[in-house]
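tool_call: predict_structure(chain=1)
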Amino acid sequence: MRRVATIVVLLGLALAAPFVAPAHAAFTPMAGWTTLPTREALPPSPLVRRIQELLQGLGRYSGEMHGRLDEYTVNAIRTYQQRAGLDDDGRPTEELANHIEFTSRAIELGARLDTILAEQMRAAEEALLAQPETRALVNQRPVGLLLGAQHVAQLPPHGL
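tool_result:
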């Protein structure tokens, strides 16, 4: 039985030998190439460029927008993946681009909501200050107390 297994393994190695280069074999460039292509010689990838732009929008990438997967881009992708709780393989995929885009939109929406809330709070405070009946209540509040939902618990029990 052991002899049969040995023969099968040797036969498999013999059949695979033409397809497996030895570890010490030198790389042979493709026909017509005298050297390996540089990063600049490879065509840019629209997906990589999209990811570079999205990461730049989040402040996570400050390199060139060339659409080529270089060390800086891979590091930026990995950093984003780690912070987002994703598998940090550094690979640019369509799923990753969609995730970054969704995150960017969520951050933009949150910022817009914060702006709207601040504007509404200022308008409400101005309206309260415009009425003599409520001006005293507004002026009695502790310094820095805002009228936002997160601060309602700090208002006196009779509230507004």
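agent: Confidence is low (pLDDT under 50) at residues 16-27, 152-160. Proceeding to next step.
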